[in-house]
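agent> Task received from the user: take the single chain below, predict its 3D structure, and emit structure tokens. No templates, no multimer pairing.
agent> Plan: (1) validate residues, (2) run structure prediction, (3) serialize to tokens, (4) report one or two observations.
agent> Step 1 OK, no nonstandard residues flagged.
tool_call: predict_structure(input=
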Amino acid sequence: MRRQRLNIQLKTPEQIDLMRAAGLVVAAALARMREAVAPGITTADLDAIAESVIRDAGAIPSFKGYHGFPATICSSVNEQIVHAIPSPRQVLRNGDLISIDCGAVLDGWHGDAAITVGVGDVDPALLRMAEVAEDAMWAGIAAAAQGAAAGRGRLTDISHAVETAVRKGGRYGIVDGYGGHGIGTEMHQDPHVLNHGRPGRGPALVPGMALAIEPMITMGSPKTAELADGWTVVTRDGSVAAHVEHSSAILDDGIWVLTAPDGGRGRLGDLVTARQPATSSPA
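)
tool_result: status=success, residues=283
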């Protein structure tokens, strides 16, 4: 089923089960990369780890070949916000902050998630920014779950919740023009999910919707520039950025964070669907 106008793809519970399988592949790849992040490792090394985990699971990297993108992950370091291309020349240094975005497609269904990780001894202010971004992401996911449960939720309720959490967390720039998206049989689908805005607008939040919610915030200005490689987006003022993401699906009885090993239970409690067991071992 597809809603008209924005062409929003609504999934059946069985299709969401398939998306969960893809999401767990992404979760496993990100967990392996998180463990590997350390001074001296290159972003190309991390890319190789991700591709190995994804292919060993019988899945395919979503990013590789997407509009010509040459790698399995996006590995954005410090002032790089999103879409940075892994390189054997990009060596992580003590004090860096890296955002790793990863996607996989399994049996025709996509998973997409991102984490921000400190390298070695990192300025606590940078780690705090990454924590605020993660809290804002979970606030957005909770808003989607609560709005759908109440039967009156709208898309921009998510945007407003993300923005409110960021503003509560401190003086950070919220990157404009980049945000979350629908996900399913394609990695990027309608609707676009901004990380700021007034609530109560846009399509209704209904069962069957699957959304990737991904705050991107900076220590300084939210203004961006794209590098000559045609992919890497950086902060115009050189300030450090953080980017986090989870893919979630709305069901009749709650939300399912498809790329979280526990389905979101630890952060969202009873807002999570019963399709996700109350206890779950990490992927």
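agent> Step 4: summary for the user.
Helices lie at 13-36, 43-56, 124-150, 155-169, 265-268.
agent> Done.
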